[in-house]
C-alpha cells in the first residue's frame, strides 16, 4: 500500500470537525490506516519515540503540555489518540486529564480545543513529512556535465568527444583531463598575453598574476591578485603537471569534477580579458 496525497487529504478533511462521541474511534481508524503504509508508519514511529512523556507527566489541571517544537506537538497529538484507545476512553477525557479544556463547560468545545491544539497539527505535520518533496533543483548545479549549455567551447570540442567512446574508461578520462590542462595553460597564455611558448607552469602563472604581471592591473586589491596567482599555480601543480608527465587514469567521478573545475577557471580567465 502507498498512501497518496489525495487520499490523505480527503481523510483528514473528513476528520476536521468531529463530534466528541465519534472522535476516538474515528481518529484511531485514521492512525491504523497510516500504520498500514510503511512510509507513514515510519513517521509515526519517529513521533512515538520522541521523549514527550515528561511533558505529559508535568501536565495537569489548567496546565496543558508545554510542547516547544512541531515534532513534539505532533507527538503529543498522537499520544492523545493512542492513550484514548489504550484506556478505552474518549479523547476529551484524555484532554481533561492533561489540562486541555475550553473556556466553556461544553464537552464538544473541549474536544474542539484538543483538535485545534494537537490533532490538526499532527495531521499537518504528517502531510508535510509525507508529501512535501524537498527542493532538488540544486542537483543540476552539482552536475554541470549534465547540461553543457555554458560549458567552455574548447572543452566541448576537444575533451568531450573522446569520452563518447567509453565514459566509464579511466584511460579516456586521463586523456580528457590532460587535454583540459593544456587548454587551461593555453588560455592563461592567451588572456595573459604571454607569447613565449617556452614559459610554462608556475613561471607562466607568475608572469601573469605576479606583482608586475600582465594582468596585475585587473585587480584593485593585491590580496585578490595573490589569490588568483595561488589558485592557478596550485592547479598547475596538482592537475596540469601530473597528467602531463605520467598516466593518472582518474575515475569518472574525479575526471568529471576536474573538467568542471577547469571550466570554472576558464570562465574566470575570460572575465579578465
Distance between the termini: 60 Å
| Assembly category | single chain
SSE order, one letter for each helix or strand: HHHHHHHHHHHHHH
Radius of gyration: 32 Å
Number of strands: 0
The chain-level mean pLDDT equals 89
Secondary-structure content class: mainly alpha
Strand % is: under 5%
Task: Write a concise keyword list for the protein shown above.
273 residues; mainly alpha; 2 domains; 0% strand
Quick structural summary:
With 273 residues, this protein is mainly alpha-helical. The chain is 65% helix and 0% strand.
Architecture overview:
By secondary structure, the protein is an all-alpha fold. It folds into two domains: about 130 residues, no CATH class; about 130 residues, no CATH class. Helices cover about 65% and strands about 0% of the residues. The chain has 14 helices and no strands. Helix 6 crosses helix 7, helix 11 crosses helix 13 and helix 11 packs parallel to helix 14. The longest helix has 25 residues. The protein is elongated, with a radius of gyration of 32 Å. The mean pLDDT is about 90.
Q: Helix and strand layout, with pairings?
A:
Elements: H1 5-14, H2 23-35, H3 38-48, H4 53-58, H5 70-86, H6 91-97, H7 107-131, H8 139-142, H9 153-158, H10 160-163, H11 170-191, H12 201-209, H13 222-245, H14 252-270
Amino acid at each position: 500500500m502507498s498512501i497518496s496525497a489525495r487520499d490523505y487529504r480527503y481523510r483528514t478533511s473528513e476528520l476536521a470537525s468531529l463530534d466528541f462521541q465519534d472522535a476516538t474511534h474515528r481518529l484511531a481508524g485514521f492512525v491504523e490506516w497510516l500504520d498500514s503504509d510503511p512510509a507513514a508508519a515510519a513517521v509515526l514511529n519517529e513521533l512515538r519515540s520522541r521523549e514527550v512523556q515528561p511533558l505529559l507527566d508535568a501536565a495537569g489541571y489548567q496546565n496543558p503540555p508545554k510542547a516547544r517544537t512541531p515534532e513534539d506537538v505532533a507527538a503529543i497529538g498522537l499520544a492523545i489518540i493512542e492513550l484514548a484507545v489504550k484506556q478505552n476512553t474518549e479523547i476529551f477525557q484524555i484532554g481533561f486529564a492533561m489540562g486541555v479544556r475550553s473556556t466553556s463547560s461544553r464537552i464538544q468545545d473541549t474536544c474542539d480545543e484538543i483538535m485545534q491544539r494537537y490533532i490538526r497539527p499532527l495531521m499537518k505535520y504528517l502531510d508535510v513529512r509525507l508529501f512535501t518533496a524537498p527542493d532538488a533543483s540544486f542537483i543540476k548545479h552539482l552536475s554541470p556535465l549534465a547540461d553543457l549549455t555554458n560549458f567552455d567551447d574548447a572543452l566541448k570540442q576537444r575533451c568531450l568527444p573522446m569520452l563518447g567512446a567509453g565514459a566509464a574508461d579511466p584511460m579516456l578520462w586521463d586523456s580528457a583531463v590532460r587535454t583540459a590542462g593544456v587548454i587551461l595553460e593555453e588560455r592563461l597564455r592567451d588572456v595573459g598575453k604571454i607569447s613565449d611558448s617556452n614559459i610554462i607552469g608556475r613561471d607562466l602563472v607568475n608572469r601573469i598574476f605576479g606583482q608586475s604581471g600582465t594582468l596585475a592591473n585587473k585587480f584593485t586589491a593585491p590580496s585578490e591578485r595573490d589569490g588568483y596567482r595561488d589558485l592557478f599555480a596550485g592547479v598547475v601543480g596538482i592537475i596540469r603537471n601530473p597528467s602531463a608527465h605520467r598516466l593518472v587514469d582518474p575515475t569518472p567521478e574525479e575526471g568529471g569534477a576536474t573538467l568542471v573545475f577547469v571550466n570554472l577557471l576558464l570562465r574566470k580567465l575570460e572575465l579578465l580579458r
